[in-house]
Amino acid sequence: MAAAAVLGLGGSMAEPYAQDWWLVGRACDGALLRDSVAQLASDDAQFTKEESRRIPELGFYGCSLAFDGDHTEGVTLVAMSAYTGRDDQDREFMGASPEGASRSRPCCRAGCPESPTASGTCGS
In the predicted model, is pLDDT for residue 70 greater than 80? Predict the structure, then answer.
């Protein structure tokens, strides 16, 4: 009976560490190094939530890892999202432009410099 009590007490003490190990290992599909995450988080941090999400049709991938501490709750340690498809990237960048995506833009603010050797590209 005493052995069961010791195992129960030991298990309840180890549970937060096991949860941290599990969540950090799963976060961002296992791409985060546990040692690096431990260096970034405060000493009193207990990881509470991880999320990885992908939408292949949109070329989207996102992930996050959050923790609670003695004086904090739901602090996001890592959050990342990416659109990996070319069309998705164009749509995001053009949508963020104040001029919108319908207007063509020169590659140089004042247009391409006139030169007898210009091949239609800007710069150098």
Answer: no
